[in-house]
Amino acid sequence: MKDLISIADLSSKDIQGLIESAVELKGKRKSALLKGKTLAMIFEKPSLRTRVSFDVGMYELGGHSIYLSPAEIGLGKREPVEDVAEVLSRYVDGIMARTFAHDSVVQLAKHATVPVINGLSDEEHPCQILADLQTIYEKKGTLKGINVAYIGDANNCANSLLLACAIMGMEFWIACPAGYSPSDAILVKARGNKGQVMITDDPKIAVQDADVIYTDVWTSMGQEDESAKRRKAFAGYQVNSKLISAAQKDVIFMHPLPAHYGEEVAAGMLRKPQSVVFDQAENRLHMQKAILVKLMR
To answer: Are residues 137 and 260 in the same domain?
Structure first.
C-alpha cells in the first residue's frame, strides 16, 4: 500500500486496521510518529475539513505540512502532472491532492516516488469515507450487518461509501432520481465483494431498515451551472424529520459537510439527536492521522 487513491485499493483488513489505528490515535493526540516528515498539500478546490485535518494531523504527529494553492501549482496547466510529482518527490515525504479530475491524482501516484493520498477528486473521497466508517464503528460498535441508506446524488462521496460498504460486507441502499445513479464502473468495482448494493428512486424504501442515513449536496463543486436542474430533479430527496422517522429507532444521520440547508437536508437536522455529523467531522482528523502514519512512517 504505497498510495491511497480509491477505496477499492483497500481490503476489509486494511480498512479495519485504519479504523483501529484512528481510534488509538484519537486517544493520545500528540506523538512523534512522523517527526521530521513533510507533507505537500495540493489544492485545486477550497476546503475546510481536508485542509485543517491534514495540517493539524501532521503537526500532532510531529511533522510539517506545506499548502500549495492552485495559483502556485497550476496542476496540468502551468506544469505537467508528472513533473510536479517528480519534483515534489525530491522535497517531501508525502503528497495529498484535492483535485477536480481523478486522473490527476492517478498520474501523481504513477510518477511520484513518495506516497500520494487522494484528498478528494470528482470520482472519489476515500479519506472522508474512512472517517465515516470510523464514526459508524464508534456509534454502533461494529460494521458487520450495518445497513446504510444514502439519499441523493451518486457523487464522489457516494461512490466511495458504496465501495466501502461492499468491501466491509455492509448493505448499501442509494435512493436517487433517474440519471443520477452510480456509474457502471463503480458498480463493477463493487461486485465480487461481500456487501449488497441496491438502487431505488424512493427514499422511504431505502431508509426503512437503515441503521445509517447519509446524504450530501445535490450540486458538487464544478457543477454550479446545473444547480437549478438538480434542485428540480432532487425535489423529494431531502433528509428531514419525516424521513428519519421511517428508519430504525436508533438510526444515525451523517453528512460530510458543507450542508445546503433547505436542499438535501432540512434546517436544524444537523443538531437533532440522531445526528453524528460533527463527530464525523472530528474523525477526519483522527483518520487522516491513521492514513498518514500507514503511508509515511
So the answer is: yes
